[in-house]
Write a structure and sequence with these properties.
Elements (H helix, E strand, L loop, with lengths): L7 E2 L7 E4 L4 E3 L5 E5 L2 E12 L12 H11 L7 E11 L4 E6 L9 E5 L2 E5 L3 H6 L9 H10 L13 E2 L4 E6 L2 E6 L13 H22 L4 E3 L4 H11 L7 E7 L6 H11 L2 E7 L7 H8 L8 H12 L5 E2 L4 H5 L5 H27 L2 H4 L2 H5 L1
Parallel strand pairs: 13-14, 13-16, 14-15
Antiparallel strand pairs: 1-4, 2-3, 4-5, 5-6, 6-7, 7-11, 8-9, 8-10, 11-12
Helix pairs in contact: 5-6
Length: about 375
């Protein structure tokens, strides 16, 4: 492995040609990083937060030269040692292969692929792929469309277009000897052992969550926070406030004509001394729906989608990155109404009780039973 002085970092500008030879044309955007040594090229986008493997002094995990070091030391298994939300490409000219790694977590940094006439196109968005092959826009994936209509989302590897595939979590796409293959290099599984004690589990979870928030705040000291007033965002702000002396910038939404958790967000902001700002939702936000659909590319629906867009739009005016929470209200039942609880109970226990309920109804219809006041009331 050459020394650090032999590793070159290639600057990237918006829309620049990163690499061009007889086998590969690579165009880059501002958030793509790249390094090359001895004909091996490493390119990544997204966020790499750490490495489980030891790196040389002076290299951080998000440095593209670290990817080259890990690839030289560990081969194709190096990506399993990375933490974060990322896509990594290794172009190994001496060995004549290209490797495209998708991280094990869904939906943050993504890669899409399209094979056409012996060429492989890949991108971090769908739009460039269907722009270079415009007739693909007319080839809808009807199975994916059915999934969207049933579940309000589409899961990888499908997209709304039949010819465009999204890389799955932990997927490796390999191009070698003009053959494209794919496999799962890192399949995340639930640990075989789990913490049974609730207090201990909560302590471990709090430590992990606090450490992850702290690490991001070190990476971006000016980051902001989404504060809706719900369980997850309130807990995150509380943990973050204990790790800094500055007033955390927090953003949320409020409304006049319908209920939000804005009063709770204000109480949390006051408690932890944040610089809190709100966007008042008045209904004109529906005008942003075409832009939201454009940015999502794949069909997707979630009831709070426009509200999240409003909060993120406000945050974008103040900070470069935001930390937020998701699904805690659903997981811990804060957003479940009594009516929905009864519905879920019927769905869960109904099949078990159905035979007995039938027996009870049959007995209640007997003449002897019908003459009994208590039975009639039951």
């Amino acid at each position: 492995m050459p020394g650090l002085e032999d590793l070159s970092v290639i600057p990237v500008s918006d829309g620049a040609v990163l690499l061009a030879d007889e086998n590969l044309l690579l165009l880059g955007a501002t958030d793509v990083v790249m390094a090359e040594v001895d004909g091996v090229v490493a390119v990544s986008w997204g966020t790499i937060t750490g490495s489980l493997a030891t790196l040389p002094d002076g290299l951080s995990a998000d440095d593209p030269r670290a990817l080259l070091h890990l690839y030289a030391e560990l081969g194709e298994s190096f990506a399993r040692k990375l933490n974060g939300h990322f896509v990594v490409m290794i172009y190994d000219r001496p060995r004549g292969k290209l490797l495209l790694f998708q991280d094990r977590f869904p939906g943050i940094a993504t890669a899409y692929r399209l094979e056409r006439e012996g060429l492989l196109y890949f991108s971090d968005r769908i739009e460039p792929l269907v722009r270079v092959c415009p007739d693909e826009r007319r080839k809808l994936d009807r199975v994916a469309l059915h999934q969207y209509l049933a579940d309000t989302y589409i899961t990888a590897p499908a997209t709304i277009y039949a010819g465009v595939r999204q890389l799955e979590c932990g997927e490796l796409v390999r191009v070698e000897a003009s053959v494209v293959t794919s496999s799962i290099y890192d399949d995340w599984n639930r640990p075989a052992t789990r913490i049974e004690d609730g207090r201990q589990a909560l302590a471990v979870y709090r430590t992990l969550l606090g450490d992850s928030i702290g690490e991001w705040m070190e990476r971006d000291p000016s980051c902001g926070f989404l504060l809706s007033g719900g369980l997850d965002s309130s807990a995150i702000v509380a943990l973050a406030a204990g790790r800094t002396d500055r007033a955390l910038p927090t953003c949320g939404i409020a409304a006049v004509d319908f209920h939000t958790d804005a009063p709770y967000a204000r109480r949390v902001a006051e408690r932890y001394g944040t610089d809190h700002r709100e966007r008042l939702v008045d209904g004109h936000e529906i005008d942003d729906l075409p832009r939201i659909a454009w940015e999502m590319e794949n069909p997707f629906y979630e009831p709070g989608m426009i509200l999240s867009w409003c909060a993120l739009s406000l945050a974008a005016e103040r900070v470069g990155s935001v930390i937020g929470g998701e699904t805690a209200d659903q997981l811990f039942g804060a957003s479940v109404t009594p009516v929905r609880r009864r519905y879920f109970a019927r769905k869960k226990y109904g099949p078990l009780l159905k035979p007995w309920l039938g027996l009870v109804r049959g007995v209640a219809r007997l003449p002897v039973a019908r003459s009994n006041t208590f039975v009639r009331k039951v």
